[in-house]
Amino acid sequence: MIVCKFGGTSVASAEQIQKVANIVKSNPARKIVAVSAPGKRSGDDIKVTDLLINLAMAALKNEEIEEELQIVVNRFMAIADGLELDHTICDVIAEDLHERVQGDKSNKELFIDSIKAAGEDNNAKLIAAYFNSIGMPARYVSPKDGLVVNDLPERTYALPEAYANLAPLKSTKEIIVFPGFFGYTKAGILRTFDRGGSDITGSILAAAVEAELYENFTDVDCVFSANPKVVNDPVEIKEITYREMRELSYAGFSVFHDEALMPVYKIGVPVNIKNTNNPSAPGTRIVPRRSVTGRPVTGISADSGFSTLYVSKYLMNREVGFGRKLLQILEDENISYEHTPSGLDDISVIMRSNQITLENEERILSRVKNELNADDVQMRHGFSMIVIVGEGMRNNTGLAARAATAISKTGANIEMINQGSSEVSLVFGVLQEYENQILQALYEEFFAHARV
Ligand code: ASP
């Protein structure tokens, strides 16, 4: 059995959904289909999920919402018309949206989640109706039937029992159409995953039914070895391990959600990233293991928006518990960190800047100074992390030297270097303004010149 997931652009219009039907029909093993909400039909279009967020915000402010609600209904109506479905499905969608906006607003986040999820939920109903209308027996299944998730305040994830609950879908006769992006808590409260979270739903389903393959259909032929918006014509990645993909999607490879690897990784279900608009292209396969031949580096990613907390204190290395106390201060502010490069008497904690506000920055600085008696403490913003990834890096000497030389040619200073113990990645922290230049220089070094 194959589980496939179709992303926003793959289900954005009637024409796209017809392509989805053809893809599903062409292989009888494709029995479970997870779908996103309709995404952008062109560059300047708005995703239904974003329209729904606007609607939720307006409802929270008790503003007039009828117009916003109608815009969403019209998007579905245009799709239904293009697929020659009668309008009963649109009435169902309009009624569903009215019901949702009337819902409990006492918790803002949960209210927004319930509206946001309407894009996927209604699209799944519509797509199931369309499949049936063209003679492909299909059934909409709600995440209510088994996709249980945790409670607030932690970010949403599937509870272990979700897998057992969903496992019976394995024996389905019809095609299951399952909405991506959300689940329900044990108390029956809807919660969405992070943005792009339909990838996670597909992965949970693939793991639950122990699929032979998880196909993730998007709008590009494959994963590229570097961002094609920055690097001209980058090499296509044909095969990549879970670990490599995890490292790359951490820093900017947005083709596949980084959290989506976990469920399939545990069971060892391979993933194939494919293009709805060009389904015969082989795509990129994400596999548990691969033999490393040729280039040691598989991909280079870069992401901006990092801050560093620099702390120095004489004899820090002798002080038992210093690191724990420092990280405790961040935990108290609910901040997660990414790297902690350290020296004898100093340590930097690198974190995503979007977690830092003027207020918590001030609190952190004063607590580190006063409670840890640090000699110096500074918070700096505006960093990028550049990550070089490859299973072949472990057995290759001189890679760090080559990377550092390539970076030095751009004139940028390397603020931080971190090599994970698994040695499949090498991370460089640099000032944000050098990010693109460095990415190009590293790509030149490791890919353009075929030197291995
Ligand atoms: N529709 C959601 C989003 O735009 C989830 C998804 O498409 O994966 O983030």
TrEMBL record:
ATP binds at residues 5-8, 218-219. Its EC number is 2.7.2.4. InterPro entries: AceGlu_kinase-like_sf, ACT-like_dom_sf, ACT_Aspartokinase, ACT_dom, Asp/Glu/Uridylate_kinase, Asp_kin_monofn, Asp_kinase, AsparK_Bifunc_asparK/hSer_DH. GO terms for cellular component: cytosol. It catalyses: L-aspartate + ATP = 4-phospho-L-aspartate + ADP. GO terms for molecular function: aspartate kinase activity; ATP binding. Residues 388-452 form the ACT domain. Pathway: Amino-acid biosynthesis; L-threonine biosynthesis; L-threonine from L-aspartate: step 1/5; Amino-acid biosynthesis; L-lysine biosynthesis via DAP pathway; (S)-tetrahydrodipicolinate from L-aspartate: step 1/4; Amino-acid biosynthesis; L-methionine biosynthesis via de novo pathway; L-homoserine from L-aspartate: step 1/3. CDD domains: ACT_AKiii-YclM-BS_1, ACT_AKiii-YclM-BS_2. NCBIfam families: asp_kinases, PRK09034.1. This is Aspartokinase.
